[in-house]
Amino acid sequence: MGKRKFATEPDERAEPVKKVKKQEKYLREKLKRQQNREFRGRIAKEHGAEEPKTNEQIDAEREKKREEKKARKLARAERKQEEKKQEAERIAQQKERKKFKAEKRKALKEARRLKKAESAQVEDKEAEKDQNGASNDEGDDLKESDPEEPQRKKKKSKGEKKSKKSKVDEEEEPKKKKSKEEKKDKEEKKAKKDKKETESKSIPVDGLDDDQQSKYLRLMGAKKSSKDIKVTKNADKASTKEDLERQYEQGINLKQNKRTGLGGL
């Protein structure tokens, strides 16, 4: 190869040599790849591997995969469409239920209002009847006191007056009966209490000074003790002042008074 005088001038002798070398290199590598592929295929076949697939088989498999992917995509779209439809139905049913509940609440509220109004009307009527009954009773009282009063007021029918009066009597009868029973019970309790108090009190002794009377009362109270039965066994039989004084004198002279602290009286 000779030197080129100028760099811009092409070297006509160098170009074919480069192309030949590149082509030889490519052919060597291609042969090497082919040999390696054949070697790997032979080894795989010896170990029970399948034969390598042809281009037609590979294209068929790819086409099958594309079809399967397309079918999955279509099924997914249909499933989403069905889900949207179900969601729309659910929302519609929910709105319908809410509407039904609102109408039900409104109807119940209206029914309660009507019931309350009816009860209020009934109460007003009853109050008016009671007021009329009271005014009629007052009119009867005024009629008894003032003979000219019936002429100034409207006359009521006898049947209406009788029914109102009987109604009032029926209402008052249980109260009167209950008050009578309570009064009777109170009187019986009071009588029993008074009887018990009179029985428990000591019989008063007139004509004795305070010292003698206190000693006598001590003597009368000694009957509660078993040791002083002999002294006071006849005390309850006394009925007059003379009997009490005699028993008192007898009690003073008894020797047993030493045990009660009354000795030496």
TrEMBL record:
Biased composition (Basic residues): 96-107, 152-165
Region annotation Disordered: where it falls in the sequence: 1-265
Residues annotated as domain Small acidic protein-like: 209-263
Domain of life: Eukaryota
Bias-annotated ranges (Basic and acidic residues): 1-29, 35-95, 108-131, 142-151, 173-200, 225-248
InterPro entries, per the entry: SMAP_dom (IPR028124)
Pfam families linked to this entry: SMAP (PF15477)
Protein name as it appears in the record: Small acidic protein-like domain-containing protein
Organism: Trichomonascus ciferrii
